Structure formats: C-alpha cells, structure tokens
Amino acid sequence: MSTSVSPRDLEQLSAYLDGALSLRATANLEQRLKNELDLARAFKDLERTRALLRRAPQRRVPRQFTLTAQMVGAAQRSLSSGWNSLNWASAVASLLLVLVLISDFSVNGLPQITFGAAAPAAEEAPQALMLETAEGAADEEVLQTEAAPPQELFAEAERQVKGNETGLNWRVFLGSYARDMEIGLAILAMISGLAAWRQKNHS
Amino acid sequence: MAKFSILSFAYLPSPFVVKTRAMNEEHLIQAAQQGDLEAFNRLVLSYQGLAYNVAVRLLNDPPAAEDATQEAFLSAYRHLRSYRGGSFKAWLLRIVTNGCYDELRRQQRRPQTALEPDNPDGDEPANPGWLADPGESPQQLAERAELNRAIQRCLNQLETEFRTAVVLVDVQGMDYGEAALVMKRPLGTVKSRLARARTRLQICLQGFAELLPERFRLDHEGSA
User: Which tens digits make up the pLDDT trace of A97-124?
Assistant: First the structure.
C-alpha cells in the first residue's frame, strides 16, 4: 500500500474505481494518474482488493425462507395485541382529555351563557327567605310563607346554601386542577400515540 | 409456437427484460400488500440468497444469520404497507441490516462462547459443505474456502458500518445509491466509508498472502 497518498486521494480513487466521480473530477484524476507514480500504484492495489472481494464466494441458503400462513398469523396476532393496547391507551387518554376540556369550558365559560341569570338568583334566594321570615311581611306571598313553620324555612334555606356550596367546591376543584389534568392527559395521549406510531413503522 | 416465443424473449434487449422484471416485482409487491402471501413468497425466493449472504457476512454466524433473515422477511411482510415505492431490494436489505445490527448489539451485551468451535481457531472448516460446487475440483474448493476465510477474518476487523459498505458494494455488487438507501446515510458518507474500508482490507489481506492461493494473492509491488 502506498503511504504517500492522502486519504482524500484514496477516497477519489475508490470512487473512480466504481465510476462514481464527476466528469471533471475523472479527467483531473486521470491526468494525475499518468504523472504520479504513487497514485497509480495505490489505484492498482485498490483495484486488486476490490477484485478479490468480488470473488468472495456466495453461500447457498440453508433452507427456504418463505412464510407460512401460520407464521404470519402468529406474527400478526402478537403485533395486533401490542398495537391494540397502545391504541387503547391513546384513545382513553384522548377521551379523558376531551372530557376535561368540556368540563373546563362548562365551569368557566358556560355559567355566563346558560346559567348566568339563574345562578345569582339561586344564591340570593336563601337570604331573601330568611329576611322575609324575620320581617313577617303582610302580603299574600308573605302570608303563605308565614304559614310554614320557621324551622322548616331555615332548613330549606340551609339545604339551598349547602347545595350551592357543593357546586362551588366542584367548580373550584375543577378550576384549579383542570389545567394540570389537561396537560397530563395531552402528554399521555402524545406518548402513547407516538409509541404506537413507532411500533407500526419500526422495521 | 412456444419455442418461438422463448427464442424471441432470449434476444430481447436487456433494458426491456429488466423493465419487465421490475414490473413483475411491482405487481407482486402490490398483491402482497393486499395480503397475498404467495406473491410475497415469490419475492422471498428472489431475494433470500442476497439477504442471507449479507446477514452471514455482517454477523459471521450462520445460525444467527439464518434467524436474522427469517425475522427480516417476517418483519417485511408485517410492514409491507410502509413500503412507498423505490428500490424494494434496498428497502428489504435495510430491514436485514437493521436486524443484524440489533443482533450484533445483543451479542456485545451478552457475549457467548461456542462450546465446540469448528476448528481450533474458531473458524469454519477448510472444506465447508456450503461451498460445494459439482463443477469444482477439491483443489479449487479448498482455494475458495481459504479465500473466504481470509476475507471474512478481515471483514470482522472492520467497524459495523464500514463492513456493511464493503459487503453491499464489493461483495454483493450494489451501486452507491442503493447502498446509501440501505445504510440510510448520505452518498458521500458511503463513499468515504467504502474507501477507508477498502484500504484497511487491503492491508489485512496482504497479511494473509502466504495462506492464499497464488491466483488470489495481492501484488506486493509498490506496497509500503
């Protein structure tokens, strides 16, 4: 092997040997091969090495590698079970994400649209009832109210307040955790979807 | 009539024959993509020799190469829908080489020693049955076996990607473009890896000069 030939020249000679050089580079190299003895020797060595490698015997296949329906069926079953489980994980995570988004909208956005008028009235109702009971108003409605015993009125007011408090807690809970849940579920959906895609395309 | 058609086919220009073969392959691939196992098996029969030989050269372990080849065909069938045209040979060989890389990594993690090597050097026997050719004399068979052992020993000393480049281009006669597709590397990278691999193999094979039959020896004139 010629030591005076640079790695770049060897690369060029190797490509020239396979006819993979551009016309201009080929002409340039052929000119150099005529004038530079070391380069010409390196080319001859490379040519002989390649010829030797091309004489490497090919092996006969030890058996046929054709596939049977059984092999394909077994492979598809194992693949589809893994693929299905990943698909399911992705689908469940996506569904949960949608549910959280919907509930997030209903808590933050919808009250102003659908319950906007009803909610304040509901909040004010117990207070009004309590006031009316205390004052003992004289009109018909008040008379009807006065007809009921004061303990029942207080119990009803208490139930309404508790009901409102429960609703408030639910909203507070969702309001404070919905964003985290959304992010978590989105990440989960992405990871399982990516894993499924990777498995499908892995070859 | 049949005789006429055979003769006329034999004298058709080669590009036409190549194109016809490619069209047939395309039809077989399309049929296989629709689940026709018989069509896929015809593709297997066309490529099993090439796939197995690439695996043997990369792994230097015939039983492991046999497994890798079978796995590659099974994987190819499973993922046939992801084949989007282009060189089917390159697509298939990429699956084979990826399987071989996985096996080599596995072997590196868990090195195994054979209980009974084929001979004291751990190489193949001098006259392996797989080389048997009815037209060859025992002398020629022995020479080819020696050459094969020398080449494989030198290939084993190369890093995996350098070995792949030489096996694909020099041993299997693929062009740079196809080799680049198989290796999933730019053309320039394949060129430079091949050049460096050839230089290293040249040095290595010169070390086997005494063992190789005369007709296979590299000329030492001008060598450093």
Answer: 777 777 766 655 544 444 444 444 444 4
* Contact call for A65 and B148, based on CB within 8 A: no
Question: Cβ A45–B223 below 8 Å, yes or no?
Answer: yes
* B148–A56 CB contact, under 8 Å: yes
Cross-chain Cβ contact A44/B222 below 8 Å: yes
Chosen from A22, A33, A66 to mutate, greatest number of chain B CBs within 10 A: A66
Per-residue pLDDT, averaged over B135-147, amounts to 78
Worst-scoring range by mean pLDDT, B9-13, B92-96, B156-160, B162-166?
Answer: B9-13
CB–CB of A1 and B202 under 8 A? yes
Nearest CA to CA, how far is A7 from chain B (Å)? Answer: 8
CATH number for the domain running over B18-110 = 1.10.1740.10
Query: Which residue does chain A place closest to B142, by CA atoms?
Result: A57
CATH for the stretch B123-218: 1.10.10.10
Domain ranges of chain B: 18-110, 123-218
Q: Do residues A45 and B140 lie in contact, with contact meaning Cβ atoms separated by under 8 Å?
A: no
CB pairs under 8 A between A and B: 136
Domain residue spans of chain A: 7-54, 81-201
